[in-house]
Amino acid sequence: MQFKRFLSVELFLVVGLFYVFFLFGIQKFIFPEYWEGWIPMWMDGFLGISKALWNKLIGAAEVVMAIGLLFRQTRRLAALLMALHLLAIVYITRLSDIGIRDTGLLLMAVALVVPKK
User: Fold this and answer.
1) Nearest Cα to 28, choosing from 59, 62, 53, 67?
2) For FRET with 71, which of 29, 41, 48, 113 sits at 20 to 30 Å CA-CA?
3) How far apart are CA 90 and CA 108, in angstroms?
4) What is the 8-class DSSP label of residue 114?
5) Tens digits of per-residue pLDDT, 58-104?
6) What is the residue-wise DSSP string for 62-109?
7) How many domains does the chain have?
8) Measuring CA to CA, which residue among 90, 96, 95 is closest to residue 107?
């Protein structure tokens, strides 16, 4: 039954979140000029780190979180980190199209964090 549940629900959550986080993380290295525009101005120079470096750090973190989803041992931690990351994005973007989309992704990540019955 556990295998069937994984195929029916968890697999789709993992694949969906992996797809978004992995591709967005990689794109931050391929198209940095686009993604740096999404970093809030207050982060430029925060902790002595430029927007360009923040962009790379966030991209690397997104790739690591996506890969963490692939392994059962790290799945809940990766999903928790994704949920926290998305919560910050939703807080900043509010009810914009990005905020609404990321609220859906946030709920997907939370579904992977909540203990299964």
Assistant:
1) 59
2) 29
3) 14
4) S
5) 999 999 999 999 999 999 999 999 999 999 999 999 889 999 999 99
6) HHHHHHHHTSHHHHHHHHHHHHHHHHHHHHHHTTSHHHHHHHHHHHHH
7) 1
8) 90
The closest alpha carbon to 64, from 31, 32, 29, 25, belongs to 25
DSSP letter for each residue of 18-38: HHHHHHHHHHHHHSHHHHHTT
In the chain, the amino acid numbered 55 is N
Amino acid found at 82: M
The domain of 24 spans 2-113
Task: Please state the length of the chain.
Answer: 117
pTM, to two decimals: 0.88
**61 neighbors 52 (Cβ within 8 angstroms):** no
